[in-house]
Design brief:
mainly alpha
């Protein structure tokens, strides 16, 4: 990548990340908080905010592909080979870890920008374990789980692409059927609730965050050399750049994922600017002796699980779902389950009792 391309990659990443950081701080956008709100207060507004962002991301990304501006087929979410065990274990570990740490990687970035030392420690641990899982001492475990059993190979790894492979089927029509079904369905589910519509901060924040996903796909497409045989690009996925940013700090040299690195940096920058403007900056440290080990373990599980599952709530979540990927649905389901399990663990103090309470109850 030449110096001009590096400049644009850094600039676009920083802007998109700053929008995410400011919008997430203003709207209290949080996957763990969304689950906890439902479990303890029957309040669906924060989950509706996440779902609205996902719906907008799906429609935006599919519109860009229909217009020929991006090629979602080159993304890591639509590879034919699905390592189902790795995706399930990784997603569950990530979800459990983010409940221990009080938020996912994006939430930790937002809190760090607003002055949370706890979240900064969590991010450092996430980076260490992401790097160890991708290319360190945990890589053999990563490889063995990814290759375990009968790894599923799909003829077409997206919901729309599977039906589009049959003769005589209009691929664009099928794409927009599933776009309307998933993207439109999510948006309808969110906006039909008057309580959510009346919560302006959550409504506008989720719209802004949802729009950053197609913006990131477009930026990735513009910055990619499509003539290369292995041309591939991503939208928003904080797992790889978290590990790479730690490598930048520890060793010399600059990684290839410049856009992802600066998107990562932009999130705390955006939350800092918004917190400073709204006079909500506050230094947060570990006050409870049990808080530090929870954040360390939570960060370790997120680093390992997110790398194993190839994404986080923004990676396999918003970005992966925007491609209508089958694998992303598997990971997101595992993340939500792991999050519920982790919250139940807080309630009971027992990992196994928390698991029992998290599983669907059998009908008698």
């Amino acid at each position: 990548m030449d110096s001009s391309a590096e400049f644009w990659a850094a600039g676009l990443g920083l802007i998109i990340g700053a929008v995410i950081g400011a919008a997430a701080f203003a709207s209290n956008f949080c996957a763990v908080g969304a689950v906890a709100d439902i479990m303890f207060a029957k309040d669906w507004r924060r989950l509706r905010a996440w779902m609205l962002a996902a719906g907008i991301a799906i429609i935006g990304a599919q519109a860009l592909e229909t217009a020929g501006l991006v090629n979602l087929g080159s993304s890591p979410y639509l590879i034919p080979r699905i390592s189902w065990l790795a995706l399930i274990i990784g997603g569950t570990a990530f979800g459990f870890g983010m409940s221990l740490a009080g938020g996912c990687v994006n939430r930790a970035l937002v809190r760090t920008g607003a002055g949370s030392l706890k979240s900064l420690v969590t991010l450092l641990v996430v980076g260490v374990f992401a790097a160890m899982t991708a290319a360190g001492i945990l890589k053999p475990l990563n490889d063995s789980l990814s290759d375990f059993g009968d790894t599923v190979t799909l003829m077409a790894p997206g919901f729309d692409r599977f039906f589009a492979i049959f003769p005589g089927v209009d691929a664009v029509l099928v794409r927009w059927f599933f776009t309307a079904l998933f993207g439109g369905g999510l948006i309808w589910f969110c906006l039909k609730d008057s309580w959510f519509r009346a919560t302006k901060d959550q409504l506008t924040g989720s719209i802004a965050i949802g729009l950053t996903v197609p913006a990131a796909w477009l930026a990735g497409s513009l910055l990619t050399d499509h003539s290369a045989e292995t041309a591939s690009y991503d939208a928003l996925n904080f797992m790889v750049p978290t590990g790479e940013l730690l490598s930048v700090v520890m060793i010399s040299g600059f990684p290839a994922a410049i856009f992802g690195i600066f998107t990562l940096i932009g999130v705390p920058v955006g939350s800092f600017l918004y917190a400073a403007f709204s006079r909500n900056l506050s230094l947060e440290s570990f006050s409870d002796p049990a808080d530090l080990p929870r954040h360390l373990i939570g960060g370790a599980l997120m680093g390992f699980g997110g790398t194993l599952a190839m994404g986080c709530t923004f990676g396999q979540g918003l970005s992966g779902l925007s491609t209508l990927s089958v694998g992303s649905v598997v990971v997101v389901t595992a993340i939500w389950f792991g999050c519920v399990w982790g919250i139940r663990y807080f309630e009971t103090g027992s990992v196994w009792q928390g698991l029992r309470l998290s599983l669907p109850k059998r009908r008698k």
